[in-house]
Amino acid sequence: MTADEREQEPGSSPTSEDAAEGTEPLRVLVAEDEALIRLDLTEMLQEEGLDVVAEVSDGATAVRLARELRPDLAILDVKMPVMDGIQAAEQITSERLSAVLILTAFSQRELIERAREAGAMAYLVKPFQKHDLLPAIEVAAGRFQDLRGLEAQVGTLTDRLEARKHVERAKGLLQEREGLSENEAFRWLQRTAMERRLSMRTLAEQVIERLDAGESP
Fold first, then answer.
1. CA neighbours closer than 13 Å in the CB half-sphere of residue 209
2. Where in this protein does the record say 4-aspartylphosphate is found (predicted)?
């Protein structure tokens, strides 16, 4: 690690305002190879009450620390040694480690589309002022939360469909092998799941396995 590169462990104390409100400040990883810009950016973030959990000068270290620290946001400069910001953004977003905000010079605007394709949620053109920073952070963090919420909904829907398939299969086996009606089979599953403190899906899987093995449910 270079002399002008600093890493901080997670869990820094929240600001007094955050503590009063009972909420943790946004945890941010900063990756910028120009030391002065990195310092200015960190100061801006801290002045706004954000928790800078790491400052690094190359994309590879940014990815490594994003995996270790799981920040809420990674701010990545496009041009960095070892691994550039776009490559780092692609890895961070593909692993859903954090939201990503890309820093790009005005002359690099053609790289914005590449950054979007890599999964960056927002970008900021250098040089920028403090009043430009927070709106970009809010956009990036908001889009990341929307993405995670959408993935959770899809996962929940998939789980429900899988659970329904198992319950229907177990219910059919109970009707066929235990001589129960459809309503009786379903009520038995509900009651037994409650008694055994199992989810309907888990019980259904057990019933299917036992009945297929010729055992009692």
1. 6
2. 77
Which residues are 122's β-sheet partners?
A: 101
Give the strand pairing for 73-77 and 6-7. Answer: unpaired
Whether the bond between 81 and the residue before it is cis, its omega within 30 degrees of 0, is no
* Domain 27-128 identical in fold to domain 155-213: no
Q: pTM (2 decimals)?
A: 0.60
| C-beta of residue 84 within 8 angstroms of C-beta of residue 58 | no
CATH class as words, domain 155-213: mainly alpha
Lowest mean pLDDT, pick from 58-67, 84-93, 118-127, 193-202: 118-127
Would you list the domain boundaries of the chain?
27-128, 155-213
148 in Cβ contact with 120 (< 8 Å):
no
Which residues neighbour 131 within 8 Å (Cβ) at sequence distance 6 or greater?
Answer: none
**In the 8-state DSSP scheme, what is residue 72?**
S
pLDDT digits over 147-175, tens only? 777 666 666 767 777 888 888 899 899 99
